[in-house]
């Protein structure tokens, strides 16, 4: 445990994660480019899910790098990294099941999104999340479900479109689990010292 703690609070390691997540954020917004071009402007903030999760984590990491805690962004990062990390893994595996194969980028998305979920969990002991941070992040997260599955702004996964009701139901409960995990790991578990 001491070795994990030492690695996670290492400045060089945090800088590496910042670079990786900034690149991932930019790539993610580019990946959503076609969908964003076809999206009404007022829905745009709620469409690019995974890159926005990475952006929240970049902001949270910048706070840690400055020996500061920005609890709201930490809560948003935790919930969205875990939720969209697991969601993308499941959707790509479901595509593999439905289609019988996926493009190599599907495997890349599985690996990168699993890493998203893991990094969100690993940094939770450094966070200083308060109740109002979780409530605000939870409202944002559940509101995003409504935008996605009531107003039809969910990510484009062509072969899975016919399963949108089931995917929406799964995504709602994944959001609930992510919020509860944020409460447990972000508030109830012992905190680690922040100073780098």
Give an overview of the whole structure:
With 196 residues, the protein is mainly alpha-helical. It has one domain. It has helices at residues 2-8, 11-31, 33-37, 49-65, 71-99, 104-122, 131-149, 164-188. The longest helix is centred in the middle third of the chain and has 29 residues, at 71-99. It is globular, with a radius of gyration of 17 Å.
Characteristic key phrases:
8 helices, mainly alpha, 196 residues
Number of domains: 1
The helix count comes to 8
E-strand count: 0
Distance between the termini: 17 Å
Helix coverage percent: over 70%
User: Average pLDDT, to the nearest integer?
Assistant: 92
The SS-based structural class is: mainly alpha
Rg over CA atoms, rounded to whole Å, is 17 Å
- Beta-strand portion reads under 5%
Would you identify the regions where 5 or more consecutive residues have pLDDT less than 50?
none
Major sheet attributes? none
Q: What global shape is seen?
A: globular
Taken in chain order, the helices and strands follow as: HHHHHHHH
Helix-strand layout with pairing:
Elements: H1 2-8, H2 11-31, H3 33-37, H4 49-65, H5 71-99, H6 104-122, H7 131-149, H8 164-188
Helix pairs in contact: 2-4, 4-5, 5-6, 5-7, 5-8, 7-8
Concise overview:
The protein is mainly alpha-helical and 196 residues long.
